[in-house]
Amino acid sequence: MTSSISARSLIITLATITALGPLSMQIYLPALPAIQDSFSVSSWQAQLVFSAPLAAIAISSLIYGPASDRFGRRPVLFIGLTIFLLGSVICAVSTSIWILILGRIVQAIGGASGMVINRAIIRDLFDRETAARMLAYMVTIQVLAPMMAPLLGGVINDVTGWRAIYWFTVIAGFAAIALSYPRVPETLSHPILGQSIKGMFMSFFSLLRVPEFLAYSGQLSFGLGVWMATLGGAPYVVVRVLDRPPTELGFLLLIISAGFMLGTFTTARIATKVGVDRMIIFGSILNVVFGLVMVVLILLGEWTIWAIFLPGTIMAFASGLIMPNCQAAAVSINPRIAGSASGLITFMMMLTGAAFAQIVGVFQNETPIPMVMIATVAAILGLLSITVLPRLRGKISKKI
Questions:
Q1: 189 in a domain, yes or no?
Q2: Range of the domain at 284
Q3: Which residue of 25, 170, 230, 353 lies most exposed, with the fewest beta carbons within 10 A?
Q4: Helix (H) / strand (E) containing 133
Q5: Measuring CA to CA, how many Å separate 230 from each of 125, 249, 310, 384?
Q6: Tell me, what's the pLDDT at 181?
Q7: pLDDT of 3 over the 70 cut
Q8: DSSP run (H or E) holding 5
Q9: CATH number for 151
Q10: CA 141 → CA 13, 134, 181, 308, 334, distances in Å?
Q11: Considering its fold, how many domains does the chain have in total?
């Protein structure tokens, strides 16, 4: 960027756009039991409101990444934001659980545009280490919206009902477009002109042959699995099992988000000094240790809020150390196809996150055990990805 002021303005704007996806995924979580009751459906059907959109984000990300490499970042981004608005309206006027799920899928497809393209914009403008710091700043800012979202969703649900939550996302979508249209420039200097659709997707296979990319994207995917297992299971565990009100769930998820925000802020401050790979390893180990602490507490019969959310907050902090660094490292494997790399990362993350969120819904058994066990398994798999996966390919990076 030409100045620190313009860079700061762009980071804030990109963070706002990117926050639409996490905002729409988390704002209705406290209302999930109310949605289940409103449509008189089973827990696994209600869980599809959460998990199906994650799969939609995964699939649409494969389109956004290569499309932004070919047609430019800006036009593809604003098409996505328009789709987000349409999906929000469908959710607000839905008359059945299946129409609501459809609306959530459309909303998620639109929200994925910011989640994919903004990483590519950052990589267009900065080198690998600086991109990690800028992504950390962006995530620190963007997490403010989803950080407050569960609390806000709980209040809206308690006061006016769950449908008003989706009208709120309509307003948020309009605000994001109004803010970003004059501020987000086209940053792709050399579009891949004349490339076929087949050629666009061949870039995915070239990335998948790089062991470092597999390691970084694997840790990101299972790291999101930890997050989604927790978010997917928390409404059931807190409201149904521990018999707490939705508004309290909103406060608890706010604390979890604060832990994640602290982790990303720490990354922004020290990533260039400590190094991207060292922070990833440290965060991965921390994630597993406190996942195991949470499992032990629950198996010992400590079915309390603090036994779940205190270790969970430290795990969120660890995720804040892992994710910006992994993202910057993965999209730096081949900067020429940063959009494709970002899309492939998002595909893998969201598909894995959807799987872990739905597995929690399937195995709910009137205890917190499924949620904490599944989240910890995801943390272990993330650590294995970043440490073992490159060795299995015989090309362990000297940096890790």
A1: no
A2: 4-181+200-392
A3: 170
A4: helix 128-142
A5: 34, 12, 13, 20
A6: 83
A7: no
A8: helix 4-26
A9: 1.20.1250.20
A10: 10, 11, 19, 26, 27
A11: 1
Among the residue ranges 63-72, 137-146, 157-166, 199-208, the one predicted with the least confidence is 137-146
**CA angle at 23 for the pair 260 and 230, rounded to the nearest 5°:** 50
Q: Are 104 and 53 in contact (CB under 8 A)?
A: yes
Q: Which of 30-34, 187-191, 373-377 has the highest mean pLDDT?
A: 373-377
Report pLDDT for 2.
44
Cβ 389 vs Cβ 214: under 8 Å: yes
Radius of gyration of the chain (CA): 20
- Site of tokens 């799920």: 101
SS3 assignment for 42-106: CHHHHHHHHHHHHHHHHHHHHHHHHHHHHHCHHHHHHHHHHHHHHHHHHHHCCCCHHHHHHHHHH
- How many C-alpha atoms does 30 have within 13 Å on its Cβ side? 28
Asked whether 280 and 326 are in contact (CB, 8 A), the reply is yes
Contacts of 285 (CB under 8 A, 6+ apart): 383
Tokens of residue 339, six digits: 């959009």
Report d(CA 400, CA 397) in Å as an integer: 6
Asked if the structure places residue 88 within a domain, the reply is yes
Indicate yes or no: pTM above 0.90: no
The verdict on residue 128 lying in a domain is yes
- CA pair distance 119, 69, nearest whole angstrom: 12
pLDDT surpassing 90 at residue 400: no
Of all residues in the chain, the percent with pLDDT exceeding 70 is 88
Q: What are 114-164's pLDDT values in tens digits?
A: 878 887 788 777 776 677 777 777 766 666 666 677 778 888 888 888 888
What's at 189, amino acid-wise? S
Domain membership of residue 26 (yes or no) is: yes
Amino acid in position 258: A
Report which residue type is found at 93. V
